[in-house]
Amino acid sequence: MKLYYFTDPMCSWCYGFSPVMKKLKESYANIDLQIISGGFAPGSKQKVTKEYKDFLEYHWRNVNLRSGQYFDHSMKFVSDSFHYDTEPSSRALLVVQGFLPKKDFEFLSLMQKAFYVEGKDITNDEVLAELAQEIGVQKNVFLESYHSEEMKLKTNQGFQFSKQLGVKGFPTLLTLENGAVKILTHGFQPFESLKEIVEESLTTMFIPKSANGESCSDVSCGF
Questions:
Q1: Do the Cβ atoms of 186 and 12 come closer than 8 Å?
Q2: Strand ranges inside the chain, DSSP E
Q3: Which residues of 100-128 are buried (b: 16+ CB within 10 A; e: fewer)?
Q4: What pLDDT, in 10s, does the model give residues 96-129?
Q5: Do residues 19 and 171 touch, judged by C-beta distance below 8 A?
Q6: Alpha carbons 119 and 48: distance in angstroms, whole number
Q7: Span 158-163, mean pLDDT?
Q8: What are the DSSP calls for 103-119, one per residue?
Q9: Taking residues 52-65, what's their average pLDDT?
Q10: Residue range 164-194, pLDDT digits in tens
Q11: Helical axes 87-99 vs 125-134, angle rounded to 10°
């Protein structure tokens, strides 16, 4: 079965969902998981003002309570030049997928840890290049691809694909069955709940058709 995982490196609920996805990958090695940066806030000019920091902290606390994921609330990434633009980290994920496709989830998790735990600015190309180097992509090779017009176009195509499938927020996990979109989860789910949904999908997908009759909520980040 092929699953499409729509996520965003700077979506806090996606960070909270990361351990669940890791367990899913480990438990179902036969599942073909395609990770797509859906574009939570690409091109955003949002600065982290006092009000926006309060907004982030509120949702980070909720994510922590539901998932147990740690957040550093000091937000060391904040600066006068920082904007909550999720396009750079989304593009970085696509670059790594081109060079090391089997390490894309590892790199996604690395960016999330860098941002939420270490307070690094993952809108910065040098920071992203250093993270890519940690998993085996040379900095100069990464940066050349990252700054290419081709990669910028492909990143935007990922955002458009997300919209075409009707993805309204992140994280979203779905399948495509005979061209029809089947959403397995929209928003955070604990692993046991997601496991039941996946098990049901694995069963029903083998039944012949004739046998068949820019905001955040408390579970996801959406438009």
A1: no
A2: 2-7, 32-37, 169-170, 172-177, 180-186, 215-216, 221-222
A3: eeebbbebbbbbbbbbbeeebbbbbbebb
A4: 999 999 999 999 999 999 999 999 999 999 999 9
A5: no
A6: 13
A7: 95
A8: GHHHHHHHHHIIIIIT-
A9: 97
A10: 999 989 999 999 988 899 999 999 999 999 9
A11: 30
CA gap 87, 223 in Å, rounded: 14
Please give the torsion angle defined by the CA atoms of residues 203, 204, 210 and 213, in that order, rounded to the nearest 10 degrees. Answer: 130
| Confidence (pTM) | 0.91
User: 167 is written with which tokens?
Assistant: 């993805």
Site of tokens 């959406």: 222
Per DSSP, the residues of 14-30 read HHHHHHHHHHHHHH-TT
Cβ burial of 210 (10 Å; 0-12, 13-18, 19+) is exposed
Q: Beta strands 215-216 and 221-222: pairing type?
A: antiparallel
Instruction: State how far the alpha carbon of 151 is from the alpha carbons of 139, 163, 204, in Å.
Output: 16, 19, 37
Q: Are 128 and 142 in contact (CB under 8 A)?
A: yes
User: What domains lie within the chain, and their CATH numbers?
Assistant: 2-222 (3.40.30.10)
Residue where the block lists tokens 């367990």: 23
